[in-house]
Design brief:
Number of strands: 3
Structural class: mainly alpha
Helix content: 55-70%
Radius of gyration: 39 Å
Order of helices and strands: HHHHEEEHHHH
Strand order of the largest sheet: 1-2-3
Shape: elongated
């Protein structure tokens, strides 16, 4: 910083002197920056060529490091990189399993709804067209479980091959369970997708523990839903679908009581 009080009669001389002082100040700043190795975007003018060459590799490394994201820097560690890849593969595999599971569930829902419609077509009806069914105690009920009065039940013409109330309920419950699994699959896919997105965050790489948790969680989601579907298909298969289901699983099939 220069502090001079100089009387000037000539404005042009005053301007030239002011510019000279500013240039000297800038030169001083440049010298300090070059000695410290800081790049301020101006050509180096004060250090020798040897000194500048000695600092160049260091500058290149600094520029390279600055260009790397936090995630890329973390992946430079081979151990972390291997865990990162394993986790990516685990989550991709879990998503693939859920995709396959979703297709199976959709097919089972269509099959179960068709079977329910076929049984409803064979059900007895009240004079107003309401479908009715006998339960295991011989009482007559509508599909929602409402008991039909004895007087009204006496007007029903039974053919002998009508589905029971328990049979209809088994089909309806199975469809609801399948739809619940379908919802859970979509939730699982979204959760795994969130984990995959988190792993791609360039500025916030996940820790090794978080990556391990991601992989384990992905496998748990797929394992749980696969098991839930198998239990639904094997344990709750309605009687009319036993033969179809037996071809898909070796687990015992319990048909609803007729």
């Amino acid at each position: 910083m220069y502090n001079f009080i100089v009387p000037f009669d000539d404005n042009e001389q005053e301007i030239r002197l002011t510019e000279r002082f500013a240039r000297h100040a800038r030169d001083f700043d440049d010298l300090q920056n070059e000695m410290a190795g800081r790049d301020v975007g101006r050509i180096s003018r004060f250090l020798s060529a040897d000194a500048q060459d000695a600092k160049e590799p260091e500058k290149r490394e600094e520029r390279k490091a600055a260009m790397l994201s936090a995630l890329q820097a973390a992946l430079a560690d081979p151990v972390y990189a291997a865990l990162f890849e394993d986790t990516q593969n685990a989550l991709a595999d879990a998503q693939s399993r859920l995709d396959t599971l979703a297709q199976r569930v959709a097919a089972e829902i269509v099959r179960s709804e068709a079977a329910l419609e076929e049984k409803l077509d064979r059900a007895a009806s009240l004079p107003d067209g309401t479908k009715v069914f006998k339960d295991r105690n011989g009482d007559v009920r509508t599909q929602d479980g409402t008991m039909v009065s004895a007087e009204l039940a006496a007007t029903i013409l039974w053919q002998g091959d009508e589905p029971s109330f328990e049979d209809i309920q088994a089909h309806a419950d199975r469809i609801e369970r399948l739809k619940k699994i379908d919802d859970d699959i979509r939730s699982g896919q979204a959760e795994i997708g969130d984990m995959q997105s988190a792993m791609e965050d360039e500025d916030n790489p996940r820790s090794a523990d978080e990556l391990e948790d991601f992989g384990q969680r992905g496998r748990e989601i797929a394992d749980s839903l696969e098991e839930e579907l198998e239990n639904t298909l094997s344990v709750s298969a309605p009687a009319s679908e036993n033969n179809q289901t037996a071809g898909r699983t070796s687990a015992p099939i319990i048909a609803p009581e007729l």
